[in-house]
Amino acid sequence: MDIFDERRAELEKHEFMMGVERGRLAVALDLLTDSLIMVGQHGVYCASSRNPSKPALDLQAVLSGMEGAKVLIQSVMEELRQSREKDKSRD
Predict the structure, then answer these.
(1) Given 60, 63, 83, 88, which is the most exposed site by the fewest CB atoms within 10 A?
(2) What letter would DSSP give residue 2?
(3) Across 1-91, where does the E strand assignment appear?
(4) Can you tell me the distance from the alpha carbon of 76 to that of 26, in angstroms, rounded to the nearest whole number?
(5) Residues 85, 87, 90: CA angle, nearest 5 degrees
């Protein structure tokens, strides 16, 4: 089963509210956020041997990459919003 089947209801809701592009990005952002939470919880149990207050280095890398992906998705959503507003103001 692919993501379009697994998340059909969420995709339909967000695509209706925000348009296809922004709706899909919103669902991707939700998936990343959920994954970040799970990895963060796992990090509590897999502490770094050098610094027990931080997650293991591999988890730190995963968290960093996921946070970066979230920022990129948010920036694309903002660009699409601004583009849509600009197009509406021209009409």
Answers:
(1) 88
(2) -
(3) none
(4) 10
(5) 110
